[in-house]
Design brief:
NAD(P)-bd_dom_sf; oxidoreductase; 15-hydroxyprostaglandin dehydrogenase [NAD(+)]; 15-hydroxyprostaglandin dehydrogenase (NAD+) activity; single chain; Rossmann fold; globular; five-stranded mixed beta sheet; EC 1.1.1.232
Amino acid sequence: GAFKKVIEHFGRLDIVVNNAGVNNEKDWESTIQINLTSVIRGTYLGLEYMRKENGGDGGVIINISSLAGLMPAAFQPVYCATKHGVIGFTRSIAVTANMENYGVRLNTICPGFVNTPILQSIDKEENMGQYYSYKDEIKNMMQFYGVLDPSIIADGLITIIEDDTLNGEVMKITASQGIHFQQYNQTPFTSSKR
């Protein structure tokens, strides 16, 4: 419904940001549904409205992951798995979008710890489950790596929106290095039917 209302009001859809994130190791199935399944669903809905072959005008889809999607996250294995999934899905669909000439770019942003209410979830046993006793270790990691202000995430978002050369890129945002990109080896060869 939200996608339809945007089209009705603005006449087109240019930008989709899938920013879904909860930290609930106890209710891990819900964490998977919110952090990964909803991002996939939002991406596919966006592509339906934006793809040039469907009459769309193209655009950009940005899926928010986490640094936990690029490395292990002690005491948050399900959260970590979902954020790895967001990166793998986005990078893969970006290759497809390029090969099939969708006219849509897809990228991922991976921030470190950000000063948002999700950080409070580590203090709650109903969220952390069996990992609740490790809350101080997680807080020590937050102190070591630093906590980002949400405004720098917005800056990264604007960078991706405005740079038409970015597709399939994974932007990292950390307190120590600011905005930068994950370096990967060359994407494996993929054939195209076109």
